[in-house]
Give the backbone structure.
Amino acid sequence: MISELETETGEHVTNEILILLEIESYYNNLYSSETTATLNEYLRFTNNLEIPQLTEDMRDKIEGPLTYEECKEALSSFSNWDKSPGEDGFTTEFYIKFFDILGEHLIR
């Protein structure tokens, strides 16, 4: 619980409602799509920007359908035993235990 908050103007707020309003205002401003950057500033920033590119071999390796082996390897790397189930209602333990039976079907 936040019992006191300093606003952007330096005022100290202790009222719970005012604290919540200040937090809401802060995040609304933080995630707004407005910008003060000009086109020239953007171009100056991006002018010498080097964006790494995948080679054709790298692209071919990561694109395409998932393989049984890739999925089994990824599944075996999970270390969250005794955790809550995922959005589908199944736990990591379930998938590890039954992947040999269900894996091909899940990948399709």
